[in-house]
Amino acid sequence: MENMQIVSASKKVEAQYVEMKVPLYSYGCEKKVKKALSQLKGIHSVSVDYEQQKVTVWGICDRDQVLDTIKSKRKGACFWGTEGAHKCLRPRSKPTTSSSTRSWMLTWKAWKMAKILLI
């Protein structure tokens, strides 16, 4: 009995869902995120929706700790449904090229073929 320590429960501990918006560029990113989150204590399940760029975690955990873990792998992560969620993900921009420069753009293979034909 002397070895036992009395600890007061100051926080109510319950299982919760944590939903985050995470920029995923490939299925490899998905694996990194799952692996990082599965190593946290108290996490029961991790589901990743690649199409919506959404990660859902269920377990007994701290929301901020889960977000910090995700941010160590994917910098633009934020909570799902927050006002600034649309600012978290950078829009994928398409390279802008005019039609005149596009006609002069050749791949390396095309340059080699053109060199062979000119010789």
From TrEMBL:
Domain of life, source organism: Eukaryota
Name of the protein in its database record: Uncharacterized protein
Organism: Persea americana
